[in-house]
From TrEMBL, chain A:
Originating species: Azospirillum oleiclasticum
Keyword presence, Signal: yes
Signal sequence bounds: 1-27
Designated name of the protein: Extracellular solute-binding protein
Record-annotated membrane-spanning stretches: none
TrEMBL record, chain B:
Descriptive protein name: ABC transporter permease
Cross-referenced InterPro entries: MetI-like, MetI-like_sf
Source species of the chain: Azospirillum oleiclasticum
Key words, A-Z: Cell inner membrane, Cell membrane, Membrane, Transmembrane, Transmembrane helix, Transport
PROSITE patterns registered for this protein in UniProt: ABC_TM1
Keyword Membrane: yes
Main localization category: membrane
Compartment(s) of residence: Cell inner membrane; Cell membrane
Topology in membrane: Multi-pass membrane protein
Domain ABC transmembrane type-1: from-to ranges: 68-262
UniProt family annotation: Belongs to the binding-protein-dependent transport system permease family.
């Protein structure tokens, strides 16, 4: 009898558990929904998986990653023109936004479905794009090497032309992600701007860098080995090499501001099957958990107020600009004036040669 | 004694040349293997490691294993398909009297001359156009990836076998026919066994081309069919991970095992004699 009671009790508990599980599954607002995100690979995909995809799965949905650099993913989008797009949401960079808009690829985002947008500065979004991270671009330099050589901390790009730095400076190659902020920053400093990068390219020649870095890992290896003492690059390098090399970042003046922002956005692609799910995912990218992980695990600066406030409390991130006022004081490139193809041609003519 | 003196500088020079050649060929591989035993979550490669550990090996993410499995499946099928296309094509080109053989051979070699990035974009456009016409979308599919890799790999099978066939002693086949063997029997029992080293060489090339292919795969990979080199490429684009060195070491060791297996089955000396490098 005792065994029978135990058996019935067990069955009853199992039935209740099953009912609860079924109830939970039924409550998932995205049961059976798959959303494809065009995004970066490697560690970034892991961060999105842990902080966004898991939460989406809890709602019954599934995220598929279409990996690639934004330019590669844009090529896929162009090839699929007039047909079902290869992804529903695309993570892209500020430089590609004008082309995405001109190509008619951007769908309108219903901002009322993104409650976390209230945590973001109004300048960082509109109904076609939502900024989810930024990088802060300036001059990364090795404090110990500068002190040993008696070189003052740099304040302008032109300081990299110091003869004591000969053979120790690296600038981004035109193909690198950091090329645009560096070229535009140097152009402004030298009297040009987005519409006239000639002075900036002249400054590159004056500096005469020892190398042109093509990827962050390439630059970080050179900084870590001491081959490079200073580079035009983003602040994330300081964080990545913390404990290995004592790096700092300087933000040179650029058109009345200081330092340059490179911005990462999420956009909803026209023809996306699950608009509601796409907006839910954009909202999840702005959650406190994901925004904090953006910096702590990914090395990029978040954009949401609460995440920035929390990170400001951490002295480890003292080298970054994390207050709204500081961010507003950094220069955003006017991509309406940028002609990337012409930049590459000019670069090839005056630098590669 | 004078002869010995004369030889010593030559030997030293030869040894130096050999040392330089081995350093250039094996240096990068050894660098990766040794560095893979470094510790910690570093943003850069440390050589030599500060202390030896297997930490990076334990932390290899599943995505690398998944991508490696994908690559092995794609390269395996690509090798098979390239051989099925390449072997008859090579025999037909060398043995037949059809006009325009040189042009046909040039067509088979064309994929080697087109930059792979251009081929990648072309396949991307083609697959979407095909999808619009038929409703079947090859972009991001296993089949689509295999087809593109076969396009890149088949010229190597054809090129290798054409080289072998042009030096092939046809009197052996004639002897088999005179002694009563059928044409199919001659092909099966005489021609193909004699071509075996060339077929293995072509197959090995096809496998290597497919396994290491990046420029086309970057455009054609979907959410499920990410190949191993593309996964590594994407990771390196975002950030360096020491686990890349660990998984690369494992792939290198696997490759050496394959080379050893080829040596056991065919013999690398025969492989070299096929003129695979032609």
């Amino acid at each position: 009898m005792q065994s029978f009671k135990r058996l019935m009790g067990g069955l009853g508990a199992a039935a209740i558990a099953l009912a609860l599980t079924a109830g939970t599954a039924a409550a998932g607002q995205f049961d059976g929904v798959t959303v494809r995100i065009g995004t970066f690979g490697g560690k970034w995909r892991d961060i999105v998986e842990a902080n966004v995809a898991k939460a989406f799965e809890a709602e019954g949905g599934k995220i598929e990653f279409v990996l690639g650099q934004p330019a590669n993913n844009m090529a896929k989008l162009i090839a699929a023109r007039g047909q079902e797009p290869p992804f529903d949401v695309l993570e892209t960079m500020d430089n590609l936004l004008p082309q995405l808009a001109a190509g008619g690829f951007l769908d309108t985002i219903d901002l009322t479905k993104i409650p976390n947008i209230a945590k973001v500065d109004k300048a960082f979004y509109d109904d076609k794009k939502v900024m989810v991270w930024i990088t802060q671009e300036g001059i990364v330099y090795n404090k110990a090497k500068f002190a040993e050589a008696g070189i003052p901390a740099p304040t302008r790009y032109a300081d990299l032309a110091n003869p004591k730095l000969k053979g120790k400076v690296s600038l981004p190659d035109i193909s690198a992600g950091g090329a645009m902020p560096a070229i535009v920053g140097m152009s402004h400093e030298a009297g040009g701007g987005e519409a006239d990068i000639g002075p900036g390219l002249e400054l590159v020649k004056t500096i005469g860098p020892a190398s042109f870095w093509s990827s962050s890992s390439n630059l970080q290896t050179q900084l870590a080995s001491g081959d490079v003492w200073a580079a035009a690059a983003q602040a994330g390098n300081v964080q990545r090499l913390k404990g290995q090399v004592d790096l700092a970042i300087a933000f040179p003046p650029v058109a009345g501001k200081s330092g340059v922002l490179k911005q990462g956005y999420l956009v909803k692609i026209k023809g996306a099957k699950n608009a509601a799910a796409a907006e839910w995912i954009i909202n999840a990218f702005l959650s406190d958990q994901m925004q904090v992980a953006t910096l702590t695990a990914g090395g990029q600066v978040p954009v949401s107020g609460p995440a920035l406030a929390k990170l400001r409390e951490n002295p480890d991130y003292g080298f970054l600009r994390l207050s709204p006022d500081q961010l507003a004081g950094m220069y955003s490139i006017d991509f309406g004036k940028v002609n990337e193809a012409a930049y590459v041609q000019k670069w090839n003519r005056s630098i590669t040669r | 004694m004078a002869k010995l003196h004369h030889r010593t500088p030559e030997r030293i020079a030869a040894a130096l040349v050999l040392a330089v050649a081995y350093t250039v060929l094996l240096g990068p591989i050894l660098f990766v293997i040794v560095s893979s035993f470094d510790y910690g979550q570093r943003a850069y490669v440390v050589f030599p490691p500060e202390r030896f550990t297997l930490e990076s090996y334990w932390r290899i993410p599943d995505r690398y294993w998944d991508a490696l499995w994908n690559s092995l499946r794609i390269a395996g099928l690509c090798t098979l398909a390239s051989c099925l296309i390449g072997i008859p094509a090579a025999i037909g080109i060398v043995r037949s009297n059809i006009p325009g053989k040189a042009a046909i051979l040039a067509v088979f070699r064309a994929p080697m001359q087109i930059p792979a990035v251009v081929s990648g974009v072309a396949f991307l456009q083609l697959y979407y156009a095909l999808g619009a016409a038929t409703g079947w979308y090859a972009v991001g599919s296993f089949t689509g990836m295999v087809i593109a890799h076969v396009f890149a790999a088949t010229p190597y099978v054809v090129g290798t076998l054409v080289g072998v066939l042009q030096r092939f002693d046809q009197t052996v086949e004639e002897a088999a026919l005179v002694l009563g063997a059928s044409r199919l029997g001659t092909l099966w029992q005489v021609t193909l066994p004699m071509l075996k080293p060339g077929i293995f060489a072509g197959a090995l090339y096809a496998f290597m081309i497919s396994f290491s292919e990046v420029p086309m795969s970057v455009f054609l990979a979907g959410s499920h069919q990410v190949t191993f080199p593309v996964e590594v490429f994407h990771s390196m684009q975002f950030d360096f991970e020491p686990t890349i060195l660990a998984i690369s070491t494992i792939v290198t060791v696997l490759s050496l095992v394959v080379v050893w297996a080829v040596q056991r089955v065919v013999g690398l000396d025969k492989f070299v004699k096929t003129g695979a490098a032609d």
